[in-house]
Amino acid sequence: MRKHKAKLDSKSGRDLSRQVPSARPGLPKRPGFPERQGLYDPANEHDACGIGFVAHIKNVKSHDIIRDGLTILENLEHRGAVGADPKAGDGVGMLIQIPDAFFRKVLGDTVTLPQEGAYGVGMIFLPPEAEPRAQIEKMIEATVAAEGHRVLGWRDVPVDNGDLGYSIVPTEPVIRQIFVANDKKDRDQNGFERDLFIIRRTVELAVSAANIDAARGFFYIPSFSSFTVLYKGLLLSSQLGPFYHDLRDPDTVSAMALVHQRFSTNTFPTWSLSQPFRMICHNGEINTVRGNVNWMAARHAALESDLFGDDLEKLWPLIEDGQSDSASFDNALELLVMGGYSLPHAMMMLIPEAWAGNPLMDNKRRAFYEYNAALMEPWDGPAAVAFTNGRQIGATLDRNGLRPARYYVTSDDRVMMASEMGVLPVAEEKIIEKWRLQPGKMLLIDLEEGRIISDDEIKATLSSAHPYEEWLARAQIKLEDLPAPEGQAHVSANLTVLDQQKAFGYTQEDLKFLLAPMVANGEEGTGSMGTDTPISALSEKSKPLYTYFKQNFAQVTNPPIDPIREELVMSLVSFIGPRPNLLDLEGTSGLKRLEVAQPILSNDDLEKIRRISDIEDNDFHAITLDITWDVADGVAGLTARLDELCNQAEHAVARRHENIIILSDRNISAERIAIPALLATAAVHHHLIRVGLRTQAGLVIETGEAREVHHFCCLAGYGAEAINPYLAFDTVDALRDRLRLDLSREEAHAHYIKATGKGIRKVMSKMGISTYQSYCGAQIFDAVGLAQNFVDSYFSGTATTIEGIGLNEVGEETIKRHMAAFGAPAGLANALDVGGEYAVRVRGEDHVWNAETVGSLQHAVRGDSRDQYREYARLINAQDENLLTLRGLFKIRQADESGRQPIALDEVEPVTEIVRRFATGAMSLGSISPEAHETLAIAMNRIGGKSNTGEGGEESARFTPMENGDSRRSAIKQVASGRFGVTTEYLANSDMIQIKMAQGAKPGEGGQLPGHKVDRRIASVRHSTPGVGLISPPPHHDIYSIEDLAQLIYDLKNTNPEADISVKLVSEVGVGTVAAGVSKARADHVTISGFEGGTGASPLTSIKHAGSPWEIGLAETHQTLVLNDLRTRIAVQVDGGLRTGRDVIVGALLGADEFGFSTAPLIAAGCVMMRKCHLNTCPVGIATQNAELRKRFTGTPEHVINYFFFVAEEVRELLAAMGFTSLDQIIGQTDLLDTREAIDHWKAQGLDFTRLFTKIETDRPVHNCEDQKHPIDDILDRKLIAEAMPALENKTTVKIDTPITNIDRSAGTMLSGALAKRHGHAGLPEDTISVKLTGTAGQSFGAFLARGISFELEGEANDYVGKGLSGGRLAIYPPAHSGIVPEKSIIVGNTVLYGAIDGECYFRGVAGERFAVRNSGAVAVVEGAGDHCCEYMTGGVVVVLGPTGRNFAAGMSGGIAYVLDSEGDFESRCNMAMVDLEEVTGSLGNTLGHIKENMTGHDAERLHRLLENHARYTNSQRAKDILADWENYQSKFRKVMPTEFRRALNELASEQAQEQATAGE
What are phi and psi for residue 1273, nearest 5 degrees? Predict the structure, then answer.
């Protein structure tokens, strides 16, 4: 590994290396991101982090608070990251109260300060150059004077930059403080604070407008306040105190310190993005920020405020471009607080609880949220936000509760809150409360009142402050409550349903695959095998505009939500009509609001809206605008009509005061063409934003075009508040008759609306968005194949990377569809187009895999025929007639074109070297048959490549080589969100462990293995019950942010230090910055998967409409890694639709070191692409568990090996022709790619790959040639392993005693890996290695703990305790001298026992959210738990001896739970979809053998025995009390029994009885 040594000037301690010119690619000469270049775009940057605060409840200021804040930061260091420069952190900061005495001391006689509170302090970052610095200082002074206040003086803030990294020093600003006196006699401190806010915004906008080049990246105002001052910078967490002298001065005192440690996905120095900001610090990601910022901008014209008066205009634009989501949120919060809202009220508006579907919420609180919802859409996404105004300090958690935040209160009035416990150790006896932030809840300390205000009190006070229920009753109109419209509805001009369907591009497949399942079952259609059709810009067919938009999804930086099992946090409520003045809470109480429960309107619903002005006492007026144009006007008519439409909308709102606009294509006819509804919607939405009128009108779409979920999501994303798909309803009526469904018309429509609602929730949830209100207008899409100028005009803010078609081509496509409908040849006049998107059809869409390509590949591998392979490769590569892939348009420069000489084939590296770079894709045992799975493994092991287990585990018998020397062991062990079969032994037997963040065919989603595929063998491998379906949740339980992914990488590296850790991502715009974050999180390997990737089962919407081609994602990843100087330390693999050697060459040129193949090797092994994998009916025995069908499998390892050798030979031939001897030489050499000349295609000729082919200049290698540095050398487990050697080697019992701190993460994991390598999953006898620990354990305590190891912790632990538990035992209890009440105190964090396989846990205290999630077999006792307890559980036993949160047992299909229901209200908090609640019956005897034996009975005995264990291991008083009064308590327990589990157990029992009876005959 390379080392960098900074040269220091011994006198000043300043780093002089800034004077050395650097050729490092991403190292700017000034702070800030590099300019947009190639596919790198600074807009895609993300961050996450550790947050914390410490405060004295009674507002007693001291220097101890500052010191404690610095200690918290130092102990959060592992939650941050460093890039190529080991001294370059991502930023830290501390926000404190103004230390008045300190400032008086350091200013001395130079500045005389008025009394405390009568002056403000501005912390200013300024450029190093004197002239621009003086210019900005003058601007600040002039602005202060203009606002009627007085500058008292300036101060240079003393800093010591001796320890800064070489990449940071050139970007360091000059830091000064300005002191301003309140010179307005009528201004109280709050008014003065508002003036300082106006001064700051005025200066920021003035400096920006002055365009001072030297200030760019340097100038920034961290804080300007009379209450607080902010010290922050681009530092490591340990550097903040040493850098700022002020923070080390004993006279710097405060009663609070808000701190933050940042982990960003880039390594570019941006001082301004360090946190805290002026009022908040944030751990999480605002997923809807694009829409939130749009809506804030759109409010501009409608905002009025008595407090601000005319000064309001000085603040705009309120949120400037290029800020992070957290900075944008801070701006919005400032406006609300300065505009008169209390701090907690403003926070509750921005991050509301889940109120829409919560029956447990009282009516007053619900009314508060519902009323405020119309004023402000949620800033939605995972968020733990700490906030302060200097007088109150608090924190809140978003509704889904995925971010960790723990706090304690001491007897001497201190409160400490942080992302984890242990960051600020304190004497245990002083602690009187230990708790956590809960989903949607708030912690607030009012320093002026000197007390903690509980969540209930805050919300009761705020919801009683105004008569919200009364206001709602008066103002709210619910659409379903309006009278049905009378008279003739607005209908289209005498067109048959078939004519309309053809005009709007319906196909036979739309009816069969998409709409039929929605009508019949109320669910989206399911498919498999991924997609292999061309993207719309390459298709010869006319495609709907929706298909050019790809859904965004969460990966790494934020978590998706489960829209089925966690539906309680989601809402489809939509408000239609004008949005009230945000800054006039009371004045808006008289305004009417129109609310719909979900956004898909029936025809009657639409008529209600159209005629709403007929209703008395009503402010609404709807106008219908026609979105069709005259056929005779051709393409030019589209442009003219769009312009006219936007003007009509503007006129209707501004002049006629209409406040609901209905865009309708009902006027479609042979003479009139419908504008694509998405284009019309986006055009009007953005036009109204630009002219400041969007919040004064609602937008409703009446269209015959929208029919599938993706269409509705696109319309919503670009501003549609509600949609009436009238033709879809007519089609549903026709389908109901054709399919002879036993449904009424109303029921069929209800099924369709239900399926659509579920689908919209699914798409929103992929991005971690929980409310339609915040999804509306949020533009959560990338465009693929649309021209930039077209996007800028109508879809402003959407990313498009490869250019493509513009308005003319969209017009041509639309006219083409129209002419096909109204000018079709007689033979086709009565039929819809076949489609051919989902299956190969005659006259349908082109597919890469068709009878010819499948046949030629299988002939080649079975006959070992190189000529036949060449024919196959020609069919795939030569896309002369039909364009199928982006790379089909690429031209690879031959040697003579790049100034090289061709070389002889025998000089090129051999096939045996090339195939080592190949891997087969992640196809699980369960989705494919054991025969197919093992064939791939044997083949890859023979050639030195790698096969991948997929997410279903692997039988341990396969870890041992076969007698003939072959190995069935998969080198890559996948760890996905289901954690099926992920034992310590499984991980210890890997060469690479791959974390599946996303899957190409369904990124952002989980999956499901239906019960009929879970036979005894699959159930055994997955540690589940035969016949019970298995749910794989969306990837959100321990990989929901970049720092949590870093923790999982650390966990897995500990289980097997020799294995490489890989992270699988899916191509989308911004994947490059995510990959940079993955590299900083210390992954050894990253996979970029294209959207063409296969799947065993997935909603059809996901297969087609999420993710982008790998060419785009791979190029962006490579460019971004090179810019960040991270490329050498991580291997990049590409996969998803690789088929030939030419694909490998293109992948290498775009930046890939390695190559993954999935479908092609399956075809080589016999797959015939029936695309029915999800039905278990595979005719060739590959994608099935059916014993009879499996007999038809004829594939052999030789077939797969032949295929890979043919591919490698093709690679060698291409390398020789290019003049290179090895793949290493061409990795990332994008200048060897060009676009094919003379592309004769009416759409594809607009594509431009310049950004893909951009080569980032650097003098460093651009392939993987260095190792990641994993911090696993000097850790607690090394000590434990040394002391446990007698046990590991000779099975001798050992006892170990050791302290532990929060920095000791994954304790026991490396020890368990060492044990599993030697002794397998069976492990050692109980208590062979017995460890007693004392203190606060770091994250992942006891993760993957193996059988034979027992950990006893006196103290507490953080998140992920017992993750992947593999047979070990954990007991955690508070110290005996602790001042807390254990059963009312938190003892372990969130997501405990995730994916546990076996073992025991006893926790004397309460657990956080998601306790025992995906537990497969562990036994656990806990004294209370948060939301989502036992989620997705498939086995094991959980006992909860106290209150639980909401959504208990969501997705629980196996195992059992016993819950003490003292209040009798547990059922209201239990998700009853898959479970029943039973009494705990039976008597105490000794009839039960093992705890997990006969789970349908023996309940009293099992529960009693577990309580005895709990009392023994933790000395629990709660357990002792229950045991002492057993008769009374037994009746208060409820047994949670999954219905599927009971059915399967009964079936197994009767099978066994039958077998015994047969054996006895």
Answer: -85, -45
